[in-house]
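Sample pair:
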Amino acid sequence: MKASTYFLIIILLLFGCSPKPKVLFEALPHTYLLESDFNSLPNFTQESYVEVLKNFQNNCRSSKAKKLYGELCTEVDTISEAELFLKNSFTPYIITTKEDESKGLLTGYYEPELKASLTQGLQYKYPLYETPKDLIVVDLSSIYPSLKNYRLRGKVVDNRLVPYDTREESKKKTVNAEVICYCDSQVDKFFLEIQGSGRVILDDNSTIFVGYDNQNGHKYRAIGKYLVKIGALALEDVSLQSIRHWLDSNPSRVEEVLNYNKSLIYFKERTQGATGALGLELTPFRSVAVDRKYIPLGSMLYLHSNIANKELNKIVFAQDTGGAIKGSVRADLFLGTGKKALEVAGKLKSDLKLWILLPKDTKEITK
């Protein structure tokens, strides 16, 4: 036996073969998970276990979390030792890709505030629409199960289903929808669409909450990329703040830039603050938006990243989605309301590692 072959056998006996990522979610065939342990989670011992437990209880109010965590959602109400509950009940799995890449991207979002009126006027002229009455949403999953996470949107014209109006087209015609209010800034309205929910301060000083309800079916396109394409911004300088500054400085080109994103969001009034796709009010630094094609809504995650040059290690909950959130190792962290949250969210773009915490007896999740 050659010395090199002998040495290789010794290495394999001592250290074993590196485990390969596997798929546990039948409904999410492109989500690859690699079993881990709590000792592998960076600075997990610094977590506030009691706070995590309260957030897990709140998360279990959603049907998706109950389906994923089963009896643990019931047991949590009687738990007094939060740390033991977490370590004894869950197994961390690092989320990766088929190519075993585990590094992703963390961004941030916030709850914006807008000024508006219930009546249209010279100052308040940009309508915030509810879902149009002629918007048709087609769910093909009963016929094509592989399309479970996709929806076809459009409207019927001459007995044919055609694409719904783009952002630009909607400005040129009467939209068949109720108007929630009229905003004083189309740029503020646009950023409300990006964030998904917000607070509207009316001209009588009352406040209403609005949140995502539907979308026109056109693919989201980032206006930051367009500004780079036309030479208005350098790629490394793109942030919410730099985009906003350029739009404010170039009012004659606002329509051109905003219309680049053909996607248009429709809203509905809510009775609470920023609310995610699960219907739960979002918790700053505990709620994240994910791509539901890769990460199940309602799941508990552990993220390792940095924010404002400080390391960030936290248990968070997948409670929201977003048109710009694409991929398996991808999360958008909810940062709260107000200018401080805006400042951090607008600049946050950091490397990310994600683990999903699943019940200890998890073997395979079929649906």
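The chain has a mean pLDDT of 89.
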